[in-house]
Amino acid sequence: MSTNLYKRLKALLxxxxxxxxxxxxxxxxxxxxxxxEGAAGLLRVRNPLGTANGVRVYVQxxxxxxxxxxxxxxxxxx
Length: 78
What we know:
Elements: H1 5-12, E1 19-26, E2 31-36, E3 42-46, E4 56-60, E5 63-67
Antiparallel strand pairs: 1-2, 1-4, 2-3, 4-5
């Protein structure tokens, strides 16, 4: 067991959520504007993969993490 209290606290916290969206605009500074699914809003995120405009992507931790499949958005309430 680790004695570093900060590491123990950080291990309890969840990771950043993975969101899906479509790239709306690509900027010269290496960022992109992503429209999130379900009209959840717009995010300006880092674009290390150089993803083109109009591509569906996964966003995690303020950056594009990869391409996402083109599937319809479905909201299921429980």
